[in-house]
Amino acid sequence: MWMTFLQVGLGGAIGAMLRFGVGLMVVRQTGTAGFPLGILPVNVIGSFLMGVVVVAAFHRDLQHLNPFLMSGILGGFTTFSAFSLEAFTLYERGEMVQAGVYVLLSVVLSIAALAAGVWLARMLWA
Fold this sequence. Notes:
Layout: H1 2-30, H2 40-59, H3 66-77, H4 80-92, H5 96-125
Helix pairs in contact: 1-3, 2-3, 2-4, 4-5
């Protein structure tokens, strides 16, 4: 079990550095003109790679690499890739309503939770 945690941790560190590097590169190329372009490509690239990895790991019998690759590297790169995989899995199972509810709740509740955290922190430190 500890080896799995170490794989996730090592992969997560690599993924976080990649996320920071890609975000920095995008901002340097495009500037910081209001729209958050630094994270958008990270989310799209991470989701694409999650799709590739989940199928490749299954077909090549490499599921033992999932903690390092999927939870670690791609999870550190963007948790949006895991969210995308879960939503797509529901869709593929034909659970359209559940997929829609999952997407809606994930986005709305996450933004609401962030807003609540900002509100609370501003109350405490303002």
